[in-house]
Write a structure and sequence with these properties.
The protein is elongated and about 65 Å long. Strand 8 (about 205-215) and strand 9 (about 220-230) form a beta hairpin. The strands form 3 sheets. Strands 4-5-6-9-8-7 form a 6-stranded antiparallel beta sheet. The N and C termini lie far apart (about 45 Å). About 35% of the residues lie in helices and about 30% in strands. The chain contains 9 helices and 10 strands. It is an alpha+beta fold.
Length: about 250
């Protein structure tokens, strides 16, 4: 099992312990070394899991004191960390999709502005909800995915593989490889269609995430548009300092 999967498994186990009351608010979680021994994972994995739970607002870590439970809330929030295509793959594995509609569509002017393509272009559109990782949790997203109208094999294969990303199926069936994902996130409100499928009210605040999957030649392979209700979604972005650039700037200042 990979380090990321071990981290996710430990994270879910600790959150379940908090939400069930096994670790009540005000109590301390087991110490890091205790978790290392009881769960059979590395200290790095334990710290990564605790950091993720802390970002959800469930615990507070204090040096020389320990990790204290501060809340049982927000356990249904979808917490997303993305920096590579592999991260998107884990999203699909942990949050399977349920395709509700597949049809060929001609892009209207309104849709063209949203997905940034010429009006009149034809796509196969897959409409789906993506479920939370916990049983009984509400869906975390309503998504429309637009693919080449000639890639009809996807119509039969996509429903068979809810754990796979559409871009993975495109690579397997048509040999088209994605090298870049261009993503935009914006605050908006739920459309009538999205609201109905997410059991929410039209106009509810949400985040809209648009992704364009691009090949090495700059060709668009897949366009996705997802609506996430505000209380079911958290996006984390980790920015790493460019150490080489920092050293150059330091030398110049000296």
């Amino acid at each position: 099992m990979t380090r990321e999967l071990l981290k996710d498994k430990l994270t879910e186990k600790l959150i379940e312990g908090i939400s069930s009351g096994r670790y009540p608010v005000g109590s301390l979680l087991p110490k890091e070394l205790q978790l290392v021994e009881s769960e059979g994972v590395s200290r790095h994995t334990v710290r990564a899991a605790l950091a993720k739970i802390e970002r959800l607002g469930l615990i507070q870590r204090t040096p020389h004191v320990g990790t204290r439970v501060v809340s049982r809330g927000r356990v249904q929030t979808f917490d997303q960390e993305l920096s590579t295509l592999s991260d998107l793959g884990r999203l699909a594995a942990h949050n399977p999709r349920h395709i509700l509609d597949i049809r060929e569509i001609v892009v209207s002017r309104e849709l063209a502005a949203q997905i940034q393509c010429p009006p009149g272009e034809t796509f196969i559109r897959f409409s789906m909800i993506r479920m939370g990782s916990k049983r009984g949790a509400p869906p975390i997203a309503w998504t429309s995915e637009y693919v080449n109208r000639e890639w009809t094999k996807l119509v039969a294969e996509a429903p068979k593989h809810p754990e796979k990303l559409m871009i993975e199926l495109i690579a397997e069936l048509y040999g088209k490889t994605c090298v870049e994902v261009r993503q935009s996130i914006e605050a908006t409100t739920l459309t009538a269609e999205a609201a109905a499928n997410l059991n929410e009210s039209e106009g509810t605040p949400c985040l809209r995430i648009r992704r364009r999957y691009v090949s090495a030649r700059g060709k668009t392979l897949l366009i996705t548009v997802s609506y996430h209700p505000g209380d079911r979604y958290a996006f984390n972005l980790n920015v790493r300092l460019d150490r080489q650039k920092q050293c150059v700037e330091s030398d110049l200042m000296d």
